[in-house]
Task: inverse folding
């Protein structure tokens, strides 16, 4: 079936070409429908219960989706500068979709100096004199509610906080909003020393523009690197051309599918073209290597025979590797973070599509392009110094210190696993950008002068009205804030308690700073000094709900989550019965999702390892086979996690996927290696030699594809996104580790096992009658018989060829599958035919059980196909296949018993 | 006969209008304002029971009830006191203001839950809103004509009502080159100020005060039953409704505009004696009723400059 599938492109070129063309056109027509999503929403699990609470609380106390306009000027408090600021304030207020602008022009304060109370706006309008400006500065800086939130300690910085409508449906909204604010700011930028906006519109807009830049840069660069590395290693233009064609088709199919299904492109999708080009090319490289090997043994129709060779040798491993790679990407679908889930769907489809395209298009292209030039493995080896040298070094090490290598590897893995224990998780959108990016520097600058730009709410709710006019409950807010102060990680928090203690201070003097009014009446009477809109963010209209607004600058999700967890306990305890507490914010939900990231990562990793183990165990009809396949997958992953721990690289939506994707890819090399080794084992009893040959043959494509993958993943280091760059760097490193694991460790373990492929058992064509009639397979199931055959060696003999020679030592036993032979006894130059052997006959069994000279010749009278059972090999295999070998041994003793009985009977006659 | 009577009525109205128009043509800014004050500030002793409804930018309403006391002494000193009555938590909170004959304003606040102490309050201009409302004392007791310059602009006819348009300037302002502080829209039929627009230093409208539910209370003297004030920048509104009004010195004896009177009638509430209950139901009913009224006024009936 596999052969048929691969032959399709060769036998029915037009049909395959047309099919590929139609499908490609169909998907291409979906490309214009592509959508881009860089919103924060995709970082929050869709079913997060906090979403509903967040919507309600944000609806009541105002959204935490606010842009901060940072203004720095050493002459800020002059009529000229403040006049410009006022104009900017007004212009922003008039901007479409802006719901509110909070700045020094609508802040109110209370001045209790000189024994008088003066409730007043910080600035109602731009001052006309320096004196007015100075008074405004003094009253602004005297208000503890505003210091750090709106003004820096030295007064040279002020913030204008712009709240905008929450329009989720319009994918261009962030860009529009950012551009509108940026246009305004650009008009005033020359008037201030520093004027900049930081907030969700800018973050989203920058995410989107960076995404486009990545698309333009990474894909073509990956293609270039791929071509160059293949040209360098394979020295074949065709080998470079074919992966480009299959990759281009796969990219169109994948993005077309995204367009048709409405799955948006996100920042992780930026690396999809690179991944398709790089990962897709590995299979093409293996196919090309096999095709060239096939050409070297072809006789009449070189291309057809080479394609057949390629299909029969690489076909099944290729399907398996497509399956494991797809599983690697697919396992990310377990993540409930939309960003990862969407990427997982896209990449899984991409890998499958690439598999289908490769199977159909590569034979088609090979039948049309390139010469019949013979490129053998040895040719490649001579041209490829690096793989050759590597293999030589590895082989030397395997021969001389196999045990030491295994122990050293185990120790190395333990060391890296220990390092991995320091791993931490982050999901903060700002951490997606490199630290030298202006956005991050601006964020840092704001944090140096003011509280961080990240906001969350602590909302306390009661079913009773006016609960938060009660001093006892207001004191709870203050207690929570005091607890946060002790935690020492949050920059600033404001609640109605701060407002009241501020008024109290202004009424009573500085000694009352941090004290709260003692009665409900005094609370209500103090609150009369605020306009209701001053309190909107802090208390509900009926005083049944209160809100603490917290600002911070923590971008490490793990740190934030652990502090929030601690805070949650404290808040629940302080709030007491009857008051429900929620700690909520978009930023918190995003960071909380990081924990899901870790859980999903572990889940995906375990499921993938289990699936690979099951598949490989089934494929090689042995759990050992499954376990061996996991070794080269686990070693690079252990090293990768260790490196993350060592280099302080966090687990984020990008790096979280490396492990599963890398396992899916790294196991490809193992599959090719095991399949080849298994095939070679059928031809020789020298398993060590089989390992050497398998490694020699597979090393070039394995090293070439792993290096190409490393280079390809390395290209992602140029991404605008830290998460993508980190993904690229780690994936590249993992690919290099996988070379070490596949070529140094796997062969050592592989040489100690003997595997039989399930596909070989199922695909075997043997006359069932022969198996039924031969005594060697008595009382064995059909499956056992097939497996027994695969443990043996299949030999072909021409007419007249000697299978066994009299008076020679030999420990082989044969079972004739087809053809005829005769047993000839030579005595004193006279030859006597003792018997004729037909299919199903067994001979050589005495030499098999006891080293003795052969008593007769066995010569083929027709072309013969026979299974050879070598004693030494069978003894080795006893430990690998004890049931089968034991049954065979039993049957051999039965055959010998029968022979003895015949001889006794014959001698009686 | 009926027809003759109707024609006679038209004639009387036409003559009256013509005489008004003639008068209107002749008066300058200060004269219009003088006439306004002459007509409507006849009674020096006023007691009012008021409801103050405040609506924030989100449409949320807060209602308070208060008593307003004001009297003008013979020497021209104006005294004003607003004492809140509802909600219970703010009962006794008072604003006490005095404007002496020289025009100097002094304001104090009394919070019975704080201490038996009058706290002097700054904020002497129209920005000095009191106690979370959009009203300043000046908005309520009116301006002193001698402290401002008035300039009459082109009259306006709005909704069939003829208005004098009077711009108000500071005493030293150059009326040709500076922006006005306020603009009064004075009805020509009764010389009542229907609306006042307040401007900031840059001539931008920041507050609008409009009078509604006008009633002639005595001869030419009119009073409004509702005053709406809107903060244009911060988008909130306050509506002052007069539910009862008395012009009688018995209601506003001179001795009541003192700290002692307040301490006696609204004594300090020590923490231990503080009440725990509140007044939800009444609050809700008031909010619904007042909200509807405020919406009606806020959505129209104002003069657009």
Result:
């Amino acid at each position: 079936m596999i052969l048929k599938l691969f032959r399709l492109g060769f036998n029915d070129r037009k049909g395959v070409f047309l099919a590929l063309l139609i499908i490609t056109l169909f998907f291409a027509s979906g490309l214009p429908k592509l959508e881009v999503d860089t919103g924060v929403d995709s970082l929050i699990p869709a079913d997060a219960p906090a979403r509903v609470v967040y919507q309600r609380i944000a609806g009541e106390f105002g959204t935490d989706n606010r842009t901060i306009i940072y203004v720095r000027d050493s002459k800020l408090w002059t009529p000229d500068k403040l006049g410009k600021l006022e104009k900017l304030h007004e212009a922003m207020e008039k901007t479409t979709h802006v719901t509110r602008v909070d700045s020094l022009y609508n802040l109110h304060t209370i001045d209790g100096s000189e024994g008088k109370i003066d409730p007043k706006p910080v600035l109602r309008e731009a001052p006309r004199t320096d004196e007015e400006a100075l008074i405004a500065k003094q009253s602004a800086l005297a208000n503890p509610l505003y210091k750090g939130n709106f003004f820096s300690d030295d007064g040279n910085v002020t913030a204008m906080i712009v709240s905008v409508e929450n329009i989720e449906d319009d994918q261009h909204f962030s860009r529009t909003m950012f551009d509108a604010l940026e246009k305004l700011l650009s008009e005033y930028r020359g008037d201030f020393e520093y004027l900049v906006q930081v907030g969700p519109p800018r973050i989203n807009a920058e995410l989107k523009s960076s995404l486009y830049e990545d698309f333009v840069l990474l894909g073509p660069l990956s293609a270039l690197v791929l071509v160059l590395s293949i040209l360098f290693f394979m020295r074949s233009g065709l080998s470079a051309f074919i992966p480009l064609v299959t990759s281009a088709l796969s990219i169109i199919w994948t993005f077309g599918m995204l367009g048709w299904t409405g799955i948006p492109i996100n920042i992780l999708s930026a690396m999809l073209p690179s991944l398709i080009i790089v990962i897709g090319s590995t299979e093409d490289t293996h196919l090309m290597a096999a095709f060239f090997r096939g050409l070297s043994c072809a006789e009449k129709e070189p291309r057809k025979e080479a394609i057949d060779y390629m299909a029969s040798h690489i076909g099944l491993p290729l399907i398996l590797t497509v399956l494991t790679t797809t599983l690697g990407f697919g396992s990310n679908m377990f993540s409930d973070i939309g960003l990862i889930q969407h990427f997982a769907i896209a990449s899984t489809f991409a890998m499958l599509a690439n598999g289908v395209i490769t199977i159909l298009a590569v034979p088609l292209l090979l039948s049309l392009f390139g010469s019949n030039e013979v490129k053998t493995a040895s040719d490649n080896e001579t041209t490829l110094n690096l793989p050759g040298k590597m293999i030589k070094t590895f082989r030397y090490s395997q021969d001389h210190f196999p045990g030491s290598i295994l122990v050293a590897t185990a120790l190395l893995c333990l060391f890296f696993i220990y390092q991995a224990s320091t791993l931490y998780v982050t999901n903060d959108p700002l951490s997606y950008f490199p630290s030298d990016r202006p956005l991050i520097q601006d964020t840092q600058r704001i944090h140096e002068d003011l509280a961080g730009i990240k906001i969350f709410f602590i909302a306390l709710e009661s079913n009773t009205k006016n609960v938060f006019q009660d001093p006892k409950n207001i004191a709870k807010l203050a207690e929570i804030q005091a607890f946060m102060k002790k935690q020492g990680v949050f920059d600033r928090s404001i609640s109605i308690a701060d407002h009241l203690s501020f008024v109290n201070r202004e009424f009573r003097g500085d000694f009352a700073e941090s004290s709260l009014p003692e009665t409900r009446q005094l609370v209500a009477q103090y609150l009369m000094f605020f306009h209701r809109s001053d309190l909107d963010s802090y208390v509900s209209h009926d005083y049944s709900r209160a809100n603490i607004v917290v600002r911070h600058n923590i971008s490490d999700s793990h740190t934030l989550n652990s502090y929030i967890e601690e805070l949650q306990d404290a808040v629940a305890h302080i709030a007491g019965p009857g008051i429900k507490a929620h700690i909520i914010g978009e930023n918190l939900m995003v960071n909380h999702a990081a924990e899901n990231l870790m859980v999903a990562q572990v889940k995906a990793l375990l499921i993938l390892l289990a699936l690979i183990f099951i598949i490989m165990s089934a494929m090689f009809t042995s759990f050992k086979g499954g376990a061996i396949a996991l070794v080269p997958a686990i070693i690079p992953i252990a090293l990768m996690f260790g490196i993350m721990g060592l280099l302080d690289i966090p687990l984020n939506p990008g790096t979280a996927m490396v492990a599963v994707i890398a396992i899916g890819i790294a196991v490809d090399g193992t599959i090719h290696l095991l399949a080849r080794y298994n095939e070679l084992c059928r031809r020789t009893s020298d398993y060590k030699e089989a390992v050497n040959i398998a490694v020699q043959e597979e090393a070039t494509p394995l090293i070439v594809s792993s290096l190409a993958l490393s280079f390809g993943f390395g290209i992602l280091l140029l991404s605008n996104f830290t998460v993508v760059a980190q993904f690229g760097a780690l994936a590249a490193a993992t690919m290099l580790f996988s070379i070490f694991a596949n070529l140094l460790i796997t062969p050592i373990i592989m040489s100690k096992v003997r595997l039989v492929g399930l596909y070989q058992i199922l695909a075997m064509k043997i006359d069932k009658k022969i198996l039924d009639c031969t005594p060697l397979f008595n009382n064995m199931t059909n499956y056992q018989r097939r497996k027994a055959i695969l443990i043996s060696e299949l030999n072909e003999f021409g007419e007249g060829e000697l299978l066994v020679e009299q008076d020679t030592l030999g420990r082989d036993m044969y079972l004739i599958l087809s053809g005829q032979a005769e047993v000839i006894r030579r005595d004193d130059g006279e030859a006597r035919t003792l018997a004729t052997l037909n299919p199903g006959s067994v001979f050589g069994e005495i030499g098999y059980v006891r080293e003795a000279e052969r008593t007769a010749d066995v010569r083929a009278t027709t072309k013969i196909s026979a299974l050879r059972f070598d004693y030494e090999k069978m003894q080795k295999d006893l430990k690998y296949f004890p049931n089968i070998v034991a049954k065979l041994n039993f049957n051999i003793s039965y055959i010998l018993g029968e022979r003895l009985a015949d001889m006794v009977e014959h001698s009686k006659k | 006969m009926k027809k003759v009577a109707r024609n006679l009525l038209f004639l009387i109205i036409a003559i009256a209008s013509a005489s008004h128009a003639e008068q209107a043509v002749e008066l300058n800014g200060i004269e219009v304002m003088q006439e306004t004050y002459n007509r409507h500030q006849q009674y020096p002793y006023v007691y009012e029971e008021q409801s103050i409804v405040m609506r924030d930018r989100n449409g949320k309403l807060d209602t308070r009830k208060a008593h307003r006391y004001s009297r003008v002494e013979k020497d021209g000193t104006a005294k004003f006191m607003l004492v809140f009555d509802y909600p219970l938590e703010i009962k006794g909170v008072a604003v006490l203001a005095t404007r002496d004959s020289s025009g100097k304003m002094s304001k104090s606040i009394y919070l019975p839950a704080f201490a038996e102490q009058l706290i002097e309050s700054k904020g002497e201009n129209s920005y000095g809103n009191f106690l979370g409302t959009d009203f300043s004392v000046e908005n309520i007791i009116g301006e002193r004509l001698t402290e401002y310059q008035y300039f009459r602009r082109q009259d306006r006819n709005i909704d069939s009502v003829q208005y004098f348009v009077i711009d108000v300037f500071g005493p030293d302002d150059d009326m040709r080159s500076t922006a006005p502080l306020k603009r009064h829209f004075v009805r020509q039929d009764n010389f009542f100020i229907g609306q006042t627009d307040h401007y900031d230093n840059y001539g931008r409208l920041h507050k609008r005060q409009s009078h509604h539910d006008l009633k002639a209370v005595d001869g030419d003297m009119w009073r409004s039953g509702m005053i709406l004030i809107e903060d244009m920048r911060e988008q909130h509104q306050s509506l002052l409704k007069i539910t009862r009004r008395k012009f009688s010195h018995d209601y506003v004896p001179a001795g009541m505009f003192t700290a002692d009177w307040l301490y006696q009638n609204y004594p300090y509430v020590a923490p231990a004696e503080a009440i725990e209950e509140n007044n939800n139901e009444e609050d809700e009913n008031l909010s619904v009723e007042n909200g509807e009224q405020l919406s009606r006024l806020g959505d129209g009936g104002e003069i657009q400059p």
Summary: DSSP finds five helices and 13 strands in chain B.
